[in-house]
Predict the 3D structure of the following.
Amino acid sequence: MEQQFTVLLKDQIEDISHRYPALKEDQLFALWFLRAYLTESEEAARDALTGGPGDKGIDAVLIDDGARVVFLVQTKYRLRSPGKPEGRSEVLAFANTAALLAGDKAEDLKAFLRSANGATQELLGSARKRIQNNRYRLRLNFVSLGSFSNTLERDARQCMRGIASDVALELIGGKRLELLLRDYLDGAAPPIPSVDLEMERGQGVRVNGVLQRFDTGNEIESWVFSIRGNAVAELVETSGKRVFARNIRGFLGESVPVNRDMWRTLRDEPDHFFYFNNGITIACDRAERLSHRGTDVLRISNPQIINGQQTSRVLAQHPDLSAKATVLVKVIQIPRRGDRDDGGFEHLVSKIVQGTNWQTAIRASDLVSNDRRQIDLERAFRRLGYGYLRKRQTKGEAVRSDGAKARYLIKKEDLAQAVAGCDLDPVVARSGKDNLFGHDLYGTVFPTSDPDYYLTRHWLAHTVSAGSRGFPQRGYMKWLALRFLWTQVGPKLRSARSARAFRILNERRADDLIRPLSRAVDALYRDIQRYYKNNKGAGETAVDVSTFFRNRRGRDRDFAEFWARRRNPSARIFRAGISRAIGVLESYED
């Protein structure tokens, strides 16, 4: 097992510990697994933990009422001996708990729980009621950084034979956890369960076979076939936004011309949808063609719609109309090789996404939407109450995903421009947001995953923008104003304490910080206006304000020299405002 994997896993455990300091390390690992494999809700994962001592070997009981499934989880956080084979006794004992919940004898569970802690008694009692009274399925997950022999896996499953209920056991070892961690860091976790895609047949349509292709060199298998539109709608409905995790954009809304045309086709001529649409592309971990209830299906595990999100979302929004339409599907099974993969899966998926998502124009900012840095920032901002919109999408989509719980919504394009406005020549910030995501600037604009690094710049840009409202000429000057202001204030915000104080006081709209800073910004704009008048030229050769601050690099250095030479009321007001604001930061206490 690679050392990098254990380091990355420890980082995730440490990150969770900041939010749940009372939990022990093995409990934090169980919580991470639940979040990464079984539920999108960290709160639900926390509530599923059984509480440590007295848990009877059950670390978590997660009841998913929507899916009608009970998950039992036992974890072994063996960082000191990764890869070590797990012993028989604990694995078999865990497998035998299936009979306590799904078996006929209720008294067996009561006897088992006599010495259990309160949380374990309550969770397992609720689990048995769901299984016995409501026919919930039971899934057992034994999770370890170690490994499991084939014999042990076979014997563990043998323990559950004869149980009438729907019961299954998964032994998840270190190699599998590596892939799970990689998906988690890529924002594609928890994985989507297996789904069956029914191949089109009947209704006046004849389908002679399915195109199946196996690439022996890359071990990639592909299938191309047609399915009914409501099958795509059902996949989106049951999987939610997770099925688009590896796509580079969100839903762009039905006002986009392509989506509007798709809706009209569904409404007016659904039988022609197949001919007018490019179809969808699905990447998956595994795929198997089966015959199910007299129909041919392709059973796919952990599907990701990497091309055709707009098509899929339009079909999902109109399920009744979708039932009358047909869509072409390409399914690509890409092998996952754990520590031997070396990022090959993610790289190939990324290239497929770039190569196939051409119907709606791709921007440079779209191509970094699934970059690890962007995903890390999204998580970091969410913990602070910010919705970070790393994918292009409609405003309604953003509010439904992050905006419902977030106090603030920030687009990555706006954040990039705020950072560039503080750290780079004003011409760069003004040259266009998308330029900031090119190979030459992206690493400079997004150098870290520390949210306060960005939020200090975001809030300072917010203040500068507020100072330009109502003054048309200031709109052209604001990037020079932001750059100069950052040179004066930025050095005072380098420490974690001052950066945090600046963020919190801005979030609170603290008057003792905002008012002097706003006065300083107003004075700064007046001096930039004087700078422009002194340097724009005269007569027919005078340079318009819109051009003056756009084309020439180095204006920030020229203005700094101009400002240092002047002794005027605006400069004094600026200095006084900055001094007052910095004093507030230095005296701040939580």
In short: The CA atoms of residues 437 and 443 lie 8 Å apart.
